[in-house]
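INFO batch 0412 | record 1 of 1 | parsing
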Amino acid sequence: MRDGSDQPQQPVDLSSLLAELINQSTRQSEWRLQGNLLDSAWVLALPVGLKRALQNLMSNAETHAQAPFEIVLARHQGRISLRILDRGPGMIVGRAITAETAAAPTEASARKSMGYGLGLSIAERALHLDGATLSMVNRNDGGLEVCMSFGER
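INFO prediction complete | emitting tokens
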């Protein structure tokens, strides 16, 4: 399958994968990778699906928000936490922020941004297949924080 769900899970080093994705970005200089797991952060995942999920989330930040973009990779309560932070408008206040509600923007906002939020749904599905969680919250000082939590390998 295109998302790699027909392949077995494999050990993936999130820190190496994120560095690769940042290097491939046309806005590479606007990304900052930080945290206490920069040397290695191994998770058991479907490599193709995980890479596509992270590409989608990073692309959403670049498309719908402003730099600087930050990725924080850390160990938290026995799990690996990955957060993508941007400086954009965030999500609509008063709505629960989930991939489902984010994937259902108003027609006007979809036309303006040239997208319908499908990247978030794809990312959530791929992360779910890896046993990871995905949540989103508006940042107090503007922007969106996309949070993922993975079990360690």
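INFO post-check: The chain has a mean pLDDT of 82.
INFO record closed
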